[in-house]
Amino acid sequence: MTPSMISLFCFEFAEKMMQDNDPSHDLEHANRVHKLARYLAGKEGADLDIVIPASIGHDLIVYPKDSLKSKLSATHSAAEVAKFLQGIDDFPRDKIVAVMYAIQVCSFSKGIVPTTLEAKILQDADLLEAVGAVAIMRTFASAGSMNKTFYSPEDPFCVYREPDAHKYALDLFYTRLLQVEKRLHTQTARELARPRTKFLHQFLTQLTLELPQTNK
Amino acid sequence: MTPSMISLFCFEFAEKMMQDNDPSHDLEHANRVHKLARYLAGKEGADLDIVIPASIGHDLIVYPKDSLKSKLSATHSAAEVAKFLQGIDDFPRDKIVAVMYAIQVCSFSKGIVPTTLEAKILQDADLLEAVGAVAIMRTFASAGSMNKTFYSPEDPFCVYREPDAHKYALDLFYTRLLQVEKRLHTQTARELARPRTKFLHQFLTQLTLELPQTNK
Question: Which residues form the HD domain (chains A, B) (predicted)?
Fold first, then answer.
């Protein structure tokens, strides 16, 4: 099977499964992560048979963050992707476990450092979604869906306090978005991250010009 | 009463009323609009007795967009602010109607062109919230709360189609955010809008670098 055929099959499957996903974890998220992962795989010499299904299917199932099942999202996504790949006659059976592994360790919040190149690449591609303009869209979409305050009125830019991303959306810049670059595994991903990190700083600079300088 | 005292009283009142408002229409939105409106009022020579309560209270009550009561938000906000001002002994009675008028015509989607300077200034201040980094936060927070798709996968930047802001969050840039500058009433607001509009273009440019160039 060619990489393009695997992509096509996986997207057809994902399209059916992901209809109701939130906009931060929808088919376009899969599309972006897939493009990034393929690019990284090409540069770093990773196995596309593993990277393609893992990247398209890594957020196949996303339970809401406040759901008890939330921690099972990756395991259930991996299981569904595996079942799907088993149904494709030409897909190499011996690679399905590696696809499942990449999906299961992808989420950075789990704190697992992947041991395979393919899993590292998926994590890097997914991490690149947490930096740049795309990350800004996703950060505030999550804030909206959770009715979370945008920033601390007293100290929006965390100058005098520890960031608290559970409380303020903008604090996620300090706990995650601005940290992405140094958490990436591959040099190729680091190069992609650099202009995106720069844009996050531009966003913060622009906000300093727009927000009232004193409270009330 | 000094302007600072009116601000203080109105914020105390708003703080009680706005506890559950969404992050695009919360107390910090009132805070930002108030600061902008006071600045514009100073430059344009408007009456602060009217501008201050109107700006702090203009989104006092915000019914959800999908609620039948949605169209009543401004009317009910105006009525609550009027009731509150009537309870303040030192507030000039004859200005309460002008405060109500400014609040009632503020929402740009109603399409009413204000006839008083104070109402123009409130509309300008509120319109400045629809441009720049703050507008980006608010646009995607709304997308998240309504589970709206970020952009069209086929044509994110509306090159080959008419924008549809009901369907895609990014399309709001084309139907509203990038239009703000030419819809403002005062020269002072136009000057504030310019760097904010520029930042919207920077955001779109950055997105063109991040989004996959072809679909799937």
Answer: 27-130
